[in-house]
Amino acid sequence: MKKLSFIGMIAGLMVFFGSCDKNNEKGEESTSGKVIIQFEHYADGAPLVYDSMMYVNEAGNHYEVTEIQWFISDIVLKNKDGDTLLLDKDDFAHYVDTNLPDTWVWEIQDDIPATEYQSISMTFGIKGEKNKPYMFTDPPESDMLWPYPLGGDEGGYHYMKLNGFWVNTNNERQPFNFHLGVGQERDGEGNIIGFIQNWFESELPSSAFTLSDSETKVITIRMDVENWWKDPNTYDHNIHGSKVMQNQEAMRMGCENGRNVFSIGSITTKPVP
Amino acid sequence: MERIIFILKIFPLAGLLVLASCNPQSVNEENPEPEPFSPTPYEFPDIPYFPKNFNIPDDNPMTVEGVELGRYLFYDGRISGNTDKDMLMSCSTCHIQAHGFEVGINHPKFKGGKTFGLPTPEYPEGKPTPNFMMPLVNTVYNHNGYLWNGFVNESNDALGNPHYGVPAREPYNYKNIESLVWMAITAPHEMNSTVDRAVAAIAAVPMYREKFKAAFGTEEVTFERISKAIAQFVRSIISYNSKFHKYLRHEAQLTEQEQRGYDLFFSEDADCFHCHGGSVLMTTNEFFNNAKDSVFDPDEHDRHWVTGDPMDIGAYRAPSLLNIELTAPYMHDGRFKNLDEVIDFYSGGLVYSDYVHPLMKNVRQKGVQLSDEDKMALKSFLFTLTDYELINDPAYSCPPELKEWSGQVNY
Q1: In b/e form, how buried is each residue of B6-29, taking b as 16+ CB within 10 angstroms?
Q2: Residues of chain A contacting residue B6, judged by C-beta atoms under 8 Å apart
Q3: pTM for this structure?
Q4: Given an 8 Å threshold on Cβ–Cβ distance, is A8 in contact with B280?
Q5: CB contact under 8 A, B280 and A134
Q6: If one looks up domain B64-238+390-405 in CATH, what number appears?
Q7: Which residue of A has its CA nearest to B262?
Q8: How open is the CA angle A265-A266-A271, to the nearest 5 degrees?
């Protein structure tokens, strides 16, 4: 209530002395810029070609990719003193969908202090305490729901759906749904007795940059698709099959490999129009 | 300190008050303006977990009066341009509340749920609709296009259909539910009429004068107003009170069997949720080839017909499974007569083609391979999707004075 009347007062003063705010502009020297994050999906060093059985993974599976839908969250900048800054705290997660060009850009709303940054890190998926079932009410995000029976109260949404086909041992084109999210801990009879968080943080290599006053940096984050299936684990679709949401072992391998999946495509300054 | 703030705060306000009272208009009361047209904005209930983005065109905001007029027009068979009681057809002839706004499989006239239009010299028995019915619930939350193939959508810039007497100009577009009104009235497989006949027939009914005035400000009946009002009513039809919804809101409990079905549906065991589940609408409104066929007719009006993308061959919009128990037969071509057939199909009847969507991940095993017990459980979960409040809601029902004009077969 106090706050409200204070705002009322200021508003009132501004009506009375409409021009007085001009002199106040030069205050303390806080300078800031903006960050826009873009996403690109690569395979074998070139932009991913969809729906084409032209790739071979480390296990020797021939595969093609139909679509990739995933969440990135908690972008953190580290300045040269080692202090960290979490961007857009209240809007911490962004959905990327290779079918929807609008999702290939994430405009960070925060004003970001203009200074030198030594690294950018990100979370793949959404951290458990923030990953609440039904927190997204609208598509497309809502369609990423990770079913309650498989993830409980801290497993709200898929981290990623990577859908495609591989050529199986019968030489048939078979679908795979490489879906990552919260895993299940099971007892001897297969009953679920707990959940396992599989999200991970990734500090992006070569992500240092300097932000100047009033500058907008465009940071491109690249996903290298083939890396999901190698280093440290050679992932074979013939072993794990079409579906892995109920296969913690396969999801663990995928998420371990995921540490090498993301990199910086480029960091550029957005030209001033 | 507080007092000073207070005084500062009201001073400028006082100044404004003085200014306001100088305004000559507020003193002059002799020439009352004509009563301003101010219909009541229509408010959707705030439903937990439901989408917050509504597909409502800017030029047709929903009002209580507009929705009510729309309800009358939806149930008035004279909109077909006919007054002969044997020739009446309204939206409700096919979109029947008791069947989740589909026609159902036991209709006395539309045998097996196969709908057709009013008789014409060319089609004395009525021309069949190209596909089986779609439900008419929660359409306001769909941004991906209407009809089985999403042809009617915001980015469709085609206009009119001169062939059916619908001029190729605004507002006769293919963008939204407004468009589906003129399409239903003029299509040879539906009412087979013209926009002019529809307007004349409605304008001849005295009851509508007041209702058009309340909804649009004047008594004038135009086709644009008819389509806007019906579209408003259709958008108002929302389904959110099934047992499943109540379960999510902790207002109801599932039986053990229903719970088993829920676990199957919402896991990779039966794996229905990827296409029908995510949101509480029980659909993604996305388009998929769900592995029913291996050969495709190039003339089919599938998703490919709209996008030209070969990956969309044999793909259709995954419909909402709300009220699914009431809306047999199933699929765009009505090939399955009951839910047992549908479940058997997903369990062991899938066929591979190069166009199958990868989410049909078990296609090489012919399906998810459910035991008989699991099939029963899945079906009992599907039954929890029936919204009895929807099908009994008077706000969506036929106004009593239109019973004899609705063009519904009594049964």
Answers
A1: eebbeebeeeeeeeeeeeeeeeee
A2: 5
A3: 0.90
A4: no
A5: yes
A6: 1.10.760.10
A7: A149
A8: 145
Using a CB-CB cut-off of 8 Å, the residues of chain B touching A145 are: 273, 277-279
What is the least distance, in Å, from the CA of B9 to any CA of chain A?
Answer: 5
Mutant choice from A10, A167, A177 vs B, greatest count of B C-beta within 10 A: A177
pLDDT band per the 50, 70, 90 thresholds, residue A6: very low
Architecture per CATH, B243-386: Orthogonal Bundle (1.10)
User: How far B288 CA lies from chain A's nearest CA (Å)?
Assistant: 12
Check B358 against A6: CB less than 8 A apart. Answer: no
Contacts 24+ apart (CB under 8 A), B54-62: B54/B140, B54/B141, B54/B235, B55/B139, B55/B140, B55/B141, B55/B142, B55/B143, B55/B176, B55/B235, B56/B140, B56/B235, B57/B175, B57/B176, B57/B178, B60/B178, B60/B228, B60/B231, B60/B232, B62/B232, B62/B235, B62/B236
- The minimum CA-CA distance between B248 and chain A, rounded to whole Å, is 10
Q: How far is CA B122 from CA A46, B190, B196, in A?
A: 58, 14, 22
Judge whether B285 and B322 are in contact, CB under 8 Å: no
Cα B372 to its chain centre, rounded Å, is 34
**Closest by alpha carbon to A143, among B274, B28, B382, B316?**
B274
Token pair recorded at residue B16: 């404004």
- Nearest Cα neighbor of B294 from B311, B275, B313 is B313
Least Cα separation, residue A10 to chain B (angstroms): 8
Strands A160-167 and A62-79: antiparallel
ipTM above 0.85, yes or no: yes
A-contacting residues of B 31-70, CB under 8 Å?
Answer: 48-53
Closest-CA residue to A139 (of B32, B54, B366)? B54
CA distances to A9, A196, A248 from A128, in Å: 43, 9, 16
Please give the residue of chain B at the shortest CA–CA distance from A242: B361
What is the biggest distance separating any 2 CA atoms in chain A, rounded to whole angstroms?
82
A with B: how many residue pairs have Cβ under 8 Å apart? 109
Q: Where are the alpha helices (DSSP H) in chain A?
A: 2-16, 148-151, 237-240, 248-257
Instruction: Name residues 295-354 of chain B within 8 A of A (Cβ).
Output: 311, 352, 354
Digits of tens for pLDDT over chain B (411 positions)?
344 333 334 344 443 433 444 344 444 455 666 678 999 999 999 999 999 999 999 999 999 999 999 999 999 999 999 988 889 999 999 999 999 999 999 999 999 999 999 998 899 999 999 999 999 999 999 999 999 999 999 999 999 998 888 999 988 999 999 999 999 999 999 999 999 999 999 999 999 999 999 999 999 999 999 999 999 999 999 999 999 999 999 999 999 999 999 999 999 999 999 999 877 999 999 999 999 999 999 889 999 999 999 999 999 999 999 999 999 999 999 999 999 999 999 999 999 999 999 999 999 999 999 999 999 999 999 999 999 999 999 999 999 999 999 998 753
State pLDDT tens for residues A58-68.
999 999 999 99
Residue of A nearest to B49 (CA): A137
Residues of A within 8 A of B49 (CB-CB) are 134, 137
| Domain span(s) for CATH 1.10.760.10 in chain B | 64-238+390-405, 243-386
A135 pLDDT band (50/70/90 cuts)?
very high
Would an 8 Å CB–CB cutoff place B359 in contact with chain A? yes
Backbone conformation region of residue A45, classed left if phi is above 0, alpha if psi is from -120 to 50, else beta: left
